[in-house]
Design a protein that fits this description.
The complex is a heterodimer of chains A (325) and B (196). By secondary structure, chain A is of the alpha+beta class. Chain A folds into 3 domains: 1-78, no CATH class; 83-240, Sandwich (Jelly Rolls), CATH 2.60.120; 250-324, 3-Layer(bab) Sandwich (Phage tail protein beta-alpha-beta fold). In chain A, 28% of the residues lie in helices and 33% in strands. Chain A has 7 helices and 18 strands. Chain A starts with 8 loop residues before the first helix and ends with a strand. Chain B has 196 residues and is mainly alpha-helical. Chain B is 74% helix and 0% strand. Chain B has helices at 4-14, 18-40, 43-59, 70-88, 100-103, 105-109, 116-135, 140-149, 154-161, 165-186, 190-195. In chain B, α9 crosses α10. The longest helix of chain B has 23 residues, at 18-40. Chain B is globular. Chain B starts with a helix and ends with a helix. The chains are: A alpha+beta (325), B mainly alpha (196). Chains A and B meet through α1 and α2 of A and α2, α3, α4, α7 and α8 of B.
Chain lengths: 325, 196
């Protein structure tokens, strides 16, 4: 056998033979813990079953009562959860669930508080407080409120640029909490750890062992073994690219060239610069007409700008420079 | 890669399957006990934390997605509990993960002398290898323990697993491969040095 090959069976035997007995939990401890865990598990099962039964009974009662009196039903039916978000991407881009278990195709663009959402494709939804959430395919979130979302699995991007600066937003994961203060950021989670990266603004990261503030272009990896690794990542890095593909609908009709280019810059993580004040002022007063539906921000530029007096200058990767023809 | 067997187990637990609950407990309780014991050294505290971990896990089974093994997921909950305990106690966090350096003494273990330092180091390394065994998928760790620590024959292992000798041999071969890979990951230079 080559010296650099893996351990032989004899060497494994020798290695394991020297570690001695493997510690086992004491028998009485095993009994105590098993009783406690089994009891909690059964109690939880009963609660879940009770909820399902209540739901079934309620549904049956509601059906019967509906036949008797609509008025009674109106007072006994639980209040529907408020609508707190709307879907920007196509209906088929997500599945929804009320319990995180049974999924169904989304029936309309409105999303209620307390809904689980699973992205079937890149998906985008906007909360009523204007915060925009974009989801990578296969990601699952639970919409707790307009201030909080629970990331069950996968990767999401949050853009809070239209939300008031004094209102924070929390992303809760199994590992910890990321809280933004007016920013664009990504949170990703898996069974082995979580990751937060900030494009702009400030994000507070909290778990049992870590309290860190991240600013723009910083990325933090916290592994399941609690090791923390902080790196720097430019705002136009390719790891942000999927975000652009799940953009919210942007209607250019009646918007100024400047407003449109500000949006493009934000979507692509770049700075917008004008070659002259004249170009800037002109961009603010030139209005656009038409639609860019179906295009990413980057691609839309190739369609929109040729119809105007503006063009982009070749420049560094992180900057868009606009000149007036 | 999804851990389908673990996902199935979670579904069964959520459905209230008592038999699967017993399997779940018997399989994971000793592993979590060792995981916690190697970090805390206090049986009472270990009991509390493992119990809390398992209770929290049974209540949160619907959040397990199968992206990592169920044991990895349980260990994460356990780590959080340990961290929370130390935070409440306002003490510094214990070392909760193995650095590459931690396993390097394995290299010397095969030729260890009888000094107290060497024995201490040997115990530390043993704990690490036990943890590797616990993290191996399925019955791999148990099969290796039966074979190389308890010295059971393939026939006896097959009986315990209620399977054929051929299947037990095959399982042992896969378990050895998995063990080698696990060691290689945490100690890339182990093989060369251990065989040198």
């Amino acid at each position: 056998m080559d010296k650099k090959e893996s351990l032989s069976e004899e060497q494994i035997e020798q290695l394991l033979g020297r570690i001695g007995d493997i510690p086992q939990p004491p028998g009485d401890m095993r009994e105590r813990v098993k009783n406690q865990v089994a009891s909690a598990w059964r109690e939880n099962m009963q609660e879940q079953q009770q909820k399902r039964q209540n739901y079934g009974l309620f549904a049956a009662a509601a059906t019967i009562t509906l036949a008797i009196t609509v008025g009674w039903l109106m007072t006994s039916e639980p209040l529907p959860q408020p609508v707190i978000a709307s879907l920007d991407s196509p209906l088929e881009s997500v599945m929804t669930s009320t319990d995180g278990d049974r999924w169904q195709a989304s029936a309309n663009l409105e999303v209620q508080q307390g809904a689980y959402i699973k992205a079937m494709d890149t998906a985008s939804l906007s909360l009523t407080n204007t915060l925009n959430i974009r989801m990578k395919p296969e990601s699952v979130v639970y919409l707790s409120s307009t201030d909080e979302v629970r990331l069950i699995s996968g990767e999401i991007y949050l853009d809070s640029y239209e939300k008031p600066k004094d209102e924070s937003f929390r992303v809760i994961t199994d590992f910890g909490i990321a809280e933004d203060i007016g920013t664009q950021f990504i949170v990703a989670t898996s069974d082995t750890g979580w990751q937060i990266q900030v494009r702009e603004g400030l994000v507070k990261v909290k778990d049992d062992a870590t309290h860190i503030q991240l600013t723009e272009s910083q990325r933090l990896n916290i592994t399941a073994t609690n090791s923390v690794n902080q790196t720097t990542l430019p705002a136009h890095h390719e790891s942000w690219r999927w975000v652009e593909n799940s953009r919210p609908v942007y209607d250019i009709e009646g918007e100024s060239v400047d407003e449109y280019l500000q949006w493009v810059a934000r979507e692509t993580g770049r700075d917008l610069q004008y070659m002259s004040n004249e170009a800037r002022e002109s961009a603010k007063t030139t209005r656009l007409h038409g639609s860019i539906t179906g295009m990413t921000a980057s691609k839309s530029v190739q369609t929109v700008l040729p119809a105007t007096n503006f063009e982009l200058m070749p420049s560094r990767e992180n900057v868009i420079i606009v000149i007036k023809r | 890669m999804k851990h389908q067997e673990d996902l199935e187990l979670c579904r069964a637990l959520r459905a209230g399957d008592e038999h699967q609950f017993n399997q779940f407990f018997e399989h994971y309780f000793p592993r979590l006990y060792r995981f916690c014991l190697s970090r805390l050294k206090d049986d009472t505290l270990v009991e509390d934390i493992v119990q809390t971990t398992m209770i929290k896990a049974t209540k949160a089974m619907n959040t397990y997605r199968g992206d990592a093994s169920l044991f990895t997921w349980l260990c994460q909950i356990c780590r959080n509990e340990i961290n929370m305990h130390f935070r409440k106690e306002a003490r510094s966090l214990p070392e909760v993960h193995a650095e590459d350096d931690a396993i390097r003494p394995i290299l010397e273990m095969l030729e260890a002398d009888a000094s107290p330092e060497a024995e201490l180091e040997s115990a530390r390394v043993s704990a690490l290898i036990i943890e590797v065994l616990d993290f191996l998928p399925g019955n791999y760790g148990q099969a290796l323990e039966w074979k190389y620590i308890l010295g059971l024959s393939v026939t006896e292992i097959a009986e315990r697993l209620e399977t054929t000798e051929l299947a037990a041999q095959s399982l042992l071969a896969r378990a050895r491969t998995s063990f080698r890979k696990a060691l290689e990951q945490i100690a890339p230079h182990l093989n060369t040095a251990a065989q040198g």
